[in-house]
Design brief:
The chain starts with 6 loop residues before the first helix and ends with a strand. Helix 6 (196-204) runs parallel beside helix 7, helix 10 (282-293) packs across helix 16 (437-457) and helix 17 (472-484) runs antiparallel to helix 18 (492-501). It has 29 helices and 37 strands. The strands form 7 sheets. Strands 30-31-32-33-34-35-37-36 form an 8-stranded mixed sheet, sandwiched between helices. A 7-stranded mixed sheet has the order 9-8-11-10-12-13-14, sandwiched between helices. The longest helix is centred in the middle third of the chain and has 21 residues, at 437-457. It has 5 domains: 7-292, Succinyl-CoA synthetase domains (Rossmann fold, 3-Layer(aba) Sandwich), CATH 3.40.50.261; 294-457, Succinyl-CoA synthetase domains (Rossmann fold, 3-Layer(aba) Sandwich); 472-584, 2-Layer Sandwich (Dna Ligase, domain 1), CATH 3.30.1490; 592-703, ATP-grasp fold, B domain (D-amino Acid Aminotransferase, Chain A, domain 1, 2-Layer Sandwich); 727-892, Gcn5-related N-acetyltransferase (GNAT) (Aminopeptidase, 3-Layer(aba) Sandwich). It is α/β, with parallel strands linked by helices. The radius of gyration is 31 Å and the shape is globular.
Length: 895
């Protein structure tokens, strides 16, 4: 792979400061001072036409006067001057630009116009632009401090990316005081061009970065953000803090950065789907980063607590309950073993109280027993310095008990002077330490959330279930007919027909327009019946008197029909009424009412919402959301996170509901959201679910036209696993193979494929003498973003225990989206079978369909087989002007 687009921003060999000033207190002065004070070893060019030297560095009148390309340019001049200077930067072929200046999108229409102008100039020249209205960027390892911050910064393993410069300066100061350092710091400001997604993509492969902290106020491009976040979170922990959890905070965030408004609950769902961890305070941010960067991991969420004081144990247990972290149920064997170690009057429960006279030996033996329990996923060990306590000895006992153990142990030695040395010993051994019981439980909560979200990240569901194809075209025809009539709402019959096309059970109904028709419909369906107003303008029929339930006599039906019309006419006289629907009264004594809905978030697009239905939807107002596409795992997670989960289990006379039926409906709702981008909102409420199955007894839908030229999944924040791309391939020796996009679960066969390549084939593919493939590389190869990249694999014996990959061809989009870079590897025993050229032809077809105009790549000059293949496929070849050992190959895909 070629160097990342942001390489010259984060690793520049030269920096120019336009607006450098000798006046102390000015932004231009501070940026230049910071570059010198941090020890940047590259060339520094102050640009100021009125001065010959600033801070003993020679000045230049303009960027074009420097006479050679500059990697990084920092702009600290008034906003009105920046478009003209940007044109000079384009002419000087600079590598990247950081616009510190304010006065752009945050100040109104004229500022937004100015911002669009400089972004257009940068993008046309493929110059990445950070900002405007930002603090700048840092790379402490290189001595790069291209910011106006006054804080000193150490080199460390954590990267910080923030929209707020003020937040950066505060966190940098706190980190310096606490002895912490950073691998990189990027203040992105308005994210007008370079956004979180691009920076995360760069940091995901940065060897100096072990974990990433994000401060986010708004997301401009949900697809790019999640793409970069998922790429980074696959390889290293990402911890996010986002203000605006409440309405007032969201308004302030929009005013500050010009970001989009969106649901905080949906933002949470997006982070969970991306494998990141969210925190709410700065202290939690640093604690989570340190805990996750330690490398400690869990395989579940069951927590055991050991303490020598009952009060701290109760505090820890309370915090666990608040975080929904379950306390472990110790096994009988563990309780019996603990009984041999603890005094006779101990209480056999979690938290495990070691009592106030607990000595180091008791700590060690109890911790060893609890760690060995299969019902325990992690342990928080608490100590209070009581009269008979040896904090140092107990710390040493905990260290001894944890050696060689994989389960995490987190510690809290409460107090100050008496426990200081014990704390130091724990921290020196890599055992995460916290100052309070609640903070220690928080630490375990970060680990549990990271594990849970990483499981979610691995899910790559297709847009449609393979075993039951819905009648997609029939549903589209109904929606498009409504749009042709300039209608944005479907009536009840139309909405039910769309839902039925996706095999969601919906109650039968007959639309009537008179009282006599209503009676005849009731008699044909069978009493008792339900009557409902049928209006595309009324989503909540009960609120306007538009529903009559359990009408048991035919003679009562006409009266119910007239009552509905009278009530609706009085309350919503302007509503368009298409009639009244007559439906069978669903008699399900054990049924619970739930709601399943599709909504459109202004940032992340379609989301699936689930919770308690009927009247309880408004009373409880506690629904959970998930971002499509969904599979069984994600649907189960959605149900589990909802308050409605408590309604669905057995209780007194009520049996458990048929859960697989509910999961199926949620998956079908996901398919609706994926396949029908016209849907703005769909409400199935109530859905009656019991031990026998479920049925939706009402449906309401709002739609809107799709933008011309939009792709089939452009409306989704997460691109689904590509449908319809599995095909057959026959080798020249007659062997049969399957060609398909790679899947996250292909990790094992991908490892075997790379391990099986000869040293020469590895060198030709990766261009260096690679050793064993690392877990990070495996994740990068198999957990791809299908929006910006594709990897086609040739598999023999697919979906069996003997499955093996024989070839892989992949492309990755280049910045700008007009071209892509490709790579190809074929197993040594499969070469000369025609597989490589055929796989490349299929990859080029997919790239062309995706909209790429050109495919390019780098090939070692001595790789004669690959160069011959490229010539045969119509690629042009030229030697890399900077590296004689590399041949650059390229081919037009369109036009």
């Amino acid at each position: 792979m070629r160097r990342h687009r942001l390489y010259r921003i984060f690793e520049p060999a030269s920096v120019a400061v336009i607006g450098a000033s000798p006046r102390q207190g000015s932004v231009g002065y501070q940026v230049l001072h910071n570059l010198k004070a941090a020890g940047f070893e590259g060339a520094i060019y102050p640009v100021n036409r009125r001065h010959s030297r600033i801070l003993d560095v020679p000045c230049h009148a303009s960027i074009t006067d420097i006479g050679e390309p500059v990697d990084l340019v920092v702009l600290a001049i008034p906003a009105q001057r920046i478009p003209g200077v940007m044109r000079q930067c384009v002419a000087a072929r600079v590598g990247g630009v950081v616009v510190i200046s304010a006065g752009f999108g945050e100040v109104g229409p004229l500022g937004r116009q100015l911002q669009e102008e400089i972004v257009d100039l940068a993008r046309a020249a493929n110059i990445p632009l950070v900002g405007p209205n930002c603090l700048g960027v840092m790379r402490p390892r290189l001595g790069l401090n291209a910011t106006f911050a006054h804080s000193e910064v150490r080199h460390g393993p954590v990267a910080l990316v923030s929209q707020s410069g003020a937040f950066c300066t505060a966190l940098l100061d706190a980190a310096w005081s606490g002895g912490r350092g950073f691998s990189a710091v990027a203040s992105l400001g308005a994210t007008a061009d370079v956004d979180f997604g691009q920076v995360l993509d760069y940091l995901s492969l940065d060897a100096q970065t072990r974990s990433i902290l994000l401060y986010i106020e708004g997301v401009n491009d949900a697809r790019a953000f999640l793409s970069g976040l998922r790429a980074a979170a696959r390889l290293k922990p990402v911890v996010v803090i986002k203000p605006g959890r409440h309405q007032a905070g969201r308004r302030a965030a929009v005013t500050h950065t010009g970001g989009h408004r969106g649901s905080d609950q949906v933002f949470n769902a997006a982070l969970e789907r991306a494998g990141a961890v969210r925190v709410n305070t700065v202290n939690e941010l640093l604690a989570a980063a340190n805990t996750l960067a330690s490398g400690v991991r869990v395989t579940g969420g069951r927590l055991a607590i050991l303490t020598n004081g009952g009060g701290p144990g109760v505090m820890a247990a309370d915090r666990a309950a608040e975080l929904a972290v379950p306390l472990a149920q110790l096994s009988e064997a563990s309780i019996e073993a603990l009984g041999q170690v603890l005094p006779p009057h101990w209480s056999p429960s979690d938290p495990v109280d070691l009592l106030g006279d607990a000595d180091p030996q008791r700590y060690r033996k109890a911790l060893e027993i609890v760690l060995a329990d299969r019902n325990v996923d992690g342990v928080v060990v608490l100590l209070t310095p009581q009269g008979m306590t040896d904090p140092n000895g107990c710390a040493e006992a905990v260290i001894a008990a944890t050696r060689g153990k994989r389960k995490p142990v987190l510690a809290c030695w409460m107090g100050q002077n008496q426990v200081r040395e014990g704390r130091w010993k724990l921290q020196r051994e890599g055992i995460p330490h916290f100052n309070s019981p609640e903070a220690a439980v928080n630490g375990f909560g970060y680990l549990a959330a990271y594990h849970r979200n990483q499981q979610t990240l691995l899910q790559a569901p297709p847009p449609l279930a393979a075993h039951r194809a819905p009648r997609v075209q029939a549903a589209r025809d109904i929606i498009r007919a409504a749009l042709r009539d300039a209608r944005v709402h479907l009536d009840s019959l139309e909405a039910r027909a769309v839902v039925s096309a996706f095999d969601i059970p919906v109650s039968d109904c007959i639309n009537v327009t008179s009282a006599d028709e209503a009676r005849r419909a009731a008699e044909s369906l069978g009493l008792p019946v339900v009557l409902k107003i049928n209006s595309p303008d009324i989503a909540h029929k009960s609120d306007v008197g538009g529903v009559r339930l359990n009408v048991r006599e035919a003679a009562s039906v006409p009266a119910a029909y007239r009552e509905i019309h009278a009530a609706v006419s009085a309350r919503v006289p302007d509503a368009r009424v298409h009639g009244v629907t007559v439906e069978p009264m669903e008699l399900r004594p054990h049924a619970r009412e739930v709601v399943v809905a599709i909504e459109r978030d202004p940032v992340f697009g379609p989301v699936i919402r689930f919770g308690a239905g009927g009247m309880a939807e408004d009373i409880l107002a506690e629904t959970a959301v998930a971002i499509p596409p969904l599979n069984v795992f994600l649907c189960e997670e959605l149900i589990q996170r909802s308050a409605a989960q408590r309604l669905l289990v057995a209780h007194r006379y009520l049996p458990s509901i048929r859960r697989e039926a509910l999961v199926d409906v949620l998956m079908r709702a996901s398919e609706l959201a994926c396949e029908l981008p016209e849907i703005q909102r769909l409400i199935l409420n109530p859905v009656l679910v019991d031990e026998d199955g479920l049925v939706a007894v009402d449906a309401w839908m709002a739609v809107c036209p799709v933008s011309e030229g939009a792709g089939p999944f452009d409306h989704l924040a997460i691109h689904p696993y590509p449908p319809g791309m599995t095909s057959a391939l026959t080798g020249r020796d007659g062997r049969q193979f399957v060609v398909r996009p790679i899947r996250p679960e292909d990790t094992a066969i991908e490892r075997r494929f790379v391990d099986g390549l000869s040293p020469e084939s590895r060198y030709f593919r990766f261009m260096y003498g690679m050793g064993d493939i690392t877990p990070a590389m495996l994740a990068r190869f198999t957990q791809i973003d299908y929006d910006r990249e594709m990897a086609l694999v040739v598999v023999e014996h697919d979906d069996t225990e003997n499955a093996s990959i024989k070839a892989v061809a992949r492309y990755v989009a280049n910045p700008g989206g007009e071209s892509c870079e490709f790579a190809l590897a074929v197993a040594d025993d499969m070469q000369r079978q025609g597989i490589g050229s055929e796989l490349m032809r299929r990859l080029m077809t997919l790239a062309s369909q995706r909209g790429f105009q050109e495919m390019e790549g780098d090939v070692l000059a001595q790789n004669s087989k690959m160069l011959k293949l490229c010539r045969g496929l119509g690629f042009s070849l030229r030697r890399d002007p900077d590296d004689a050992e590399i041949m650059q190959v390229s081919r037009r895909l369109q036009g």
